[in-house]
Write a structure and sequence with these properties.
129 residues; alpha+beta; 4 helices; 7 strands; 22% helix
């Protein structure tokens, strides 16, 4: 098992990730691939400069695929761990010009509340390959 560590800070997003996760076909694929129903929102993390190349390298790694409905983008799912114990997944949308320094993390629960996170809090995300 290979683990990729990414570090960054929590920030408030625009709500687009939550809209995506609420789509029936996305929920179904997450349930089938990861075994949990995703909370209808994402935890947004702005990566530090050292983590950006490691995130970029994920493009070459095998991932669970989100196969889109017509008019939507593809995405990749990577199993992840936060705070040394909390199971989650990183969603990497296949969108032109998607910021390299942003991670969107999903879980079965509201991660902000569960882990008591606020904007600016540092987090370590470990991606399991």
């Amino acid at each position: 098992m290979k683990v990729v560590r990414l570090d960054g800070k929590v920030f408030s997003g625009t709500g687009e990730g939550g809209k995506y996760v609420r789509l029936v076909w996305v929920k179904k694929q997450v349930e089938e691939s990861l075994g949990f129903t995703p909370y209808e929102g994402t935890l947004n993390v702005r990566l530090d400069d050292e983590s950006i190349p490691r995130k970029r390298a994920l493009a070459k790694e095998p991932a669970l695929e989100i196969v889109p409905a017509a008019g939507y983008c593809r995405g990749k799912l990577f199993k992840a761990i936060l705070k040394d114990c909390f199971k989650a997944a990183v969603v990497v949308p296949d969108v032109l010009d998607y910021p390299e320094n942003v991670l969107e993390i999903i879980s079965s629960e509201n991660l902000r509340k569960k882990l008591r996170l606020s904007d600016g809090d540092k987090v370590e995300v470990r991606i399991i390959l």
